[in-house]
Amino acid sequence: MGLIKTTGTFTGASVNLPGLTGVNTSQIRWGQPATPGGALSGYDFLDYEMEANLGGREFPIGEFTHHNYPIFLSGQSQFWVYLAIRVHFENGNFNHDFTVNLRHDETPNQGSHPNDTVQWEAIHEPETVFIDGNKYSVEITGFRKPGQKESKPNFDVPEGSQDTAYLYARFQREAPQTS
């Protein structure tokens, strides 16, 4: 099939977050640092290039980093961050755009699960794309950290650190319609 190049842009959040910066860029941040000079929490999406796999096997479409630092959010503990992804199919010279909704769970950094969690919205129909006259369903399958063998719908990051996972997708050819 050839190369696929992806780019990602964070288009906003579901609530008015204090300190929100980076809307319409590949790096979005939010919150007020809990300590003077502290870092903001947020996400990065690193553009990615790979050989397309159209045979139904998962493959990475981008590198996603979650930055989790001590911040104040004025009572916002769960919200959505929207990521617009453009996939450019080099051989066919066309683009396919879709949006991934990411649910962010900001924890109070204590208790049985003190880590913040990011989860992509799995409840949606697969996208459809036509490649070389064939119809394919495209679905985001989840996050996968280096060394993991299966994609997961979420991953979490301990307070005061950052972690990176790849966002994976699958192209599955649909059977041609018979007359």
Automatic annotation (TrEMBL):
InterPro entries: Choice_anch_K. It comes from the Bacteria. This is Choice-of-anchor K domain-containing protein. It comes from Streptomyces eurythermus.
